[in-house]
Amino acid sequence: MADSRPPPGADDVSYTQILYPRLRELLDDEAQLVEVLPPAEYAEAHLPGALSIPLKTLDAHTTVGLDRSKGVVVYCWDGL
């Protein structure tokens, strides 16, 4: 299932739910991996190479270090 509707107020943002084969393709193309759970949960376990940007702090300031020329994969383990 995919949904590319932007969240309210974010006209230049889109998202799509993906499965592992597509994730592998994105990572092979140097996409950036961002974990959005709280820092304690990130410290407990996260995917190799993932950056920690907790969802409650996710904004233009906390994402300034992301390379805008590359894709970004945002994930969390909650509910898995």
Gist of the model:
By secondary structure, the protein is of the alpha/beta class. It is 19% helix and 12% strand. It contains two helices and three strands, in the order αβαββ.
> What portion of residues is helical?
10-25%
Structural class: alpha/beta
The major sheet is characterized as: 3 strands, parallel
First-residue to last-residue Cα separation: 17 Å
Overall strand count: 3
Q: From the alpha carbons, calculate the radius of gyration and give it in angstroms.
A: 13 Å
Kindly report the spatial arrangement of strands forming the biggest sheet: 2-1-3
List the uncertain runs.
1-9
Q: Can you give the mean pLDDT?
A: 84
Strand residue content: 5-15%
Shape, per Cα inertia axes: globular
Q: What is the succession of H and E elements? A: HEHEE
